Amino acid sequence: MKPTIVFLSTYPPRECGIATFTQDLLSYCEKFLGERVQCKVAALNLTPLDTYKYPKEVAWKIDQNSKKAYLQLAKKINDDDMVRGAIVQHEYGIFGGEEGYKVLHFMTHCKKPILVTLHTILPLPSVKMKRVTQEIIRYATVIVVLTRKSKELLEKIYPESIGKVSIIPHGIHPTIFSTQKKYKSKLELNKYTILSTFGLLSRGKGIEYVIKALPAVIKKHSTILYLILGETHPVIRRREGEEYRVELINLVKTLGLKKHVKFYDQYLTLPDLFSFLKATDIYISSSTNPNQAVSGTLSYALGSGRAVISTQFAQSKEIVTSDIGRLVPIQDSASFTGAILDLLSDKQKLKQMHMNAFEKTRSMLWSNVAKQYIDLFNRTIIPTLKTDHLQRMTDDFGIFQFASNTTPNKQYGYTLDDNARALIACLGFTKQEQTKEIVSLISIYFSYIQKCQLKDGSFINYISFDDKSPTEQNEKENLEDTQGRALWAVSEILTCEFLSAQMKDEAKKMFLLALKKCSKLTHLRAQAFAIKAFVFAQSVLPEQREELTGYIIKYADSLVHFYEKHSNESWSWFEQHLTYSNGLLAESLITASTIIKNPEYIQIGISALRFLIDKTFSEDGYCPIGNSHWYRNNLKRSLHDQQPEDPSSMILALMSAYKRTHDEEYKNLAKKCFSWFLGNNSLNTSLYNDVSGGCYDGIQPDKININQGAESLVSYLMARNVINSHKDS
Question: How would residue 181 be classed by pLDDT, with cut points 50, 70 and 90?
């Protein structure tokens, strides 16, 4: 058995643009994946009576109106451990019910990741359509649209989609660039200047406006032949027969154009289609729908290296520039006339347009598109929990600080920072499973923290491997962050339900002993760690609740003070630079606001988080502040030496904001941030190593740091825990 991706869509031989799109995408996904993964199809039928002879990749035939069929498909996918998730090609008309709402029967019950391609986004949806789309967005793990305008429109109408949307263009087939001569000869069209339009025929094609434009063109170019390629859309044919085609034929007769217009009433194979396109001098896309997102026919024409004239809709306005064609208003025959005459007026210029169109569309090849889909899909799958490297990095004393590739580098010993994070990560695992191995690791890490606590309540950080004694480094560094991080880890023990009463009692003594020192921290990140610890602890230490509340206010007010000191209209932050664990500062104020009902805390926490989002997120993904140099106000931000600690901190902050505000954007951005670990980064390389279970130490300008040390590992594991705990929310 192989890992499987399920495609839910219409599929050939059903005649439908979405069906063809899906078949092309699947075919190239299989080429990209090779033997590693298989692709299967759940093909949508219009009625239970449809008897298409589907190819072998179609594993399920779904009556688009049957709730039962959708539920059964969801169950089969859920029950099959080899199915990684589903890719849904969405068009409202191909799913049953009003505005295709029956697709939700599948989406609400499927527990695997779902990638949804939205082929249509309307600026003024009906109430029902908007409700259906909102639910699709809610249950989709990630959304693909085909144009920038579609993304802008979707995020404007459905702000809950922000952070979930990626742009991947319509694909095109590989073909060799050629002039028209060979193919005109093949089709016996040598003596003609060829205009063409292809696709399933329906009134929305607007072909009548092109036909009406021809008489004025023919006066100057008597060799014009307009080819209308394609049969009537099957759904239209069921509803009204060939009424539209007959109207077009009658229009041709009325205008005396029988010698200049030719209909090919058949569903063209791909080789035949390319023969016609390569024989074409000008391709015409005449859609009357300004809300159309994309046209596969326009994509194929440009990909064949043909100049185009197109009406104005989202894709055409983005891709049809003056060096490859012309844009005309919808339903405007005079403009079609002018554009055709313009392009035919200079044969050399038209030839260059053909080459420009071919060159401009190489990034749209189906091979590139399929890779983008697979990369995006893979980044939606939360890897199965694997503790191999965590156990490899841990002996019976604690977790080692560094690694050479996957081998612990014992020379540098252990740190409390890493053992505290490892403890928090393991406590997160227990929400999924409580194995003996995990419980054993918790005991080791907790014991290490105990060994690091001094009689005055403070903590050391560094312990050597050889004699298990504190190193001189403890005297050379400021250890305030260590104090706060240790307190956070101990507070997590206090609030963990399944741990033994003895361990929790020991943790309570440690926490209370540390309070005196940890209530006098001056570093902002140390204060932020402490806020988190105080918030956790006050729920289980009723006798100290008032004292802890006072400490929360003290440190939250400190963060507010520094925010107000350093912020201005262009810089909304607590310091004059962004450094490490940046999300922690915003998170701590958001966390404080859950206990202290001071509106300033949540307002500044969210404002700082929004600033951080603006500085680290792009349309494509997340780019953490590089450690090569810190990002100072008014200077260029650092991009290199990106390390896992920062995205982990950002994910915790975003999910904290989501829990506090219930704004879906924060959850979406957290998932996008997590995809940084899985390859959505500047090197397009996964930092998570699914063989070792480790995480690479960071991203350098041109390569990955292949060492898999403790900080990187536990940063990944903490981020994974947070994402995994909210994957179905």
Answer: very high
Please classify residue 635 by burial: count the beta carbons closer than 10 Å to its beta carbon, then call 0-12 exposed, 13-18 middle and 19+ buried: exposed
Hey, is 61 helix, strand or coil? Answer: strand
Express each pLDDT in 223-238 by its tens digit.
999 999 999 888 888 8
* Res. 361 pLDDT band, cuts 50 70 90: very high
Between the CA of residue 362 and those of 175, 242, 662, what are the distances in Å? 10, 37, 42
Fold match flag (4-167 vs 181-365) = yes
Per-residue pLDDT band at 500 (split at 50, 70, 90):
very high
Contact (Cβ atoms closer than 8 angstroms) between residue 301 and residue 274: no
Q: What architecture does CATH give domain 181-365?
A: 3-Layer(aba) Sandwich (3.40)
Length of the chain measured in residues: 729
The pLDDT of residue 728? 66
Span between the terminal Cα atoms of the chain, in Å: 30
Rounded distance, CA 716 to CA 719, Å? Answer: 5
As assigned by CATH, the class of the 4-167 domain is alpha beta
Separation of alpha carbons 158 and 2, rounded Å: 37
Tokens describing residue 602: 């949540």
CA distances from 335 to 158, 222, 338, 666 (A): 35, 19, 5, 46
Task: Tell me which long-range contacts 690-695 makes (C-beta under 8 A, separation of at least 24).
Answer: 690/383, 690/386, 692/388, 692/389, 692/392, 692/406, 693/386, 693/387, 693/388, 693/389, 693/390, 694/389, 694/393, 694/403, 694/406, 695/644
CA distance 435 to 439: 6
What's the rounded Cα separation, in Å, for the pair 470 and 273?
A: 75
Nearest to 8 by CA among 99, 136, 129: 136
Structure tokens given for 375 = 């990369």
Longest dimension (CA), the chain: 102
Inter-residue contact 460 to 474 (CB < 8 Å)? yes
Tokens standing for 665?
């954007």
145-176, pLDDT tens digit by residue? Answer: 999 999 999 999 999 999 999 999 999 999 99
Strand order from edge to edge, sheet including 165-167: 58-63, 38-45, 4-9, 83-90, 114-118, 142-145, 165-167
Encoded tokens for 3 = 């890992």
CA-to-CA distance for 465 and 471, rounded, in angstroms? 10
Contacts of 455 (CB under 8 A, 6+ apart): none
Angle value at C-alpha 340, between 339 and 346, nearest 5 degrees? 100
- Return the structure tokens found at 607: 């404002």
Q: Domain locations in the chain?
A: 4-167, 181-365
Contact by Cβ (8 Å): 112, 28: no
Query: What ranges make up the beta strands (E) of 559-600?
Result: 577-578
Token pair belonging to 229: 């390629």
Residue 320's closest CA among 347, 299, 297? 299
Q: Which two tokens stand for residue 84?
A: 């990684």
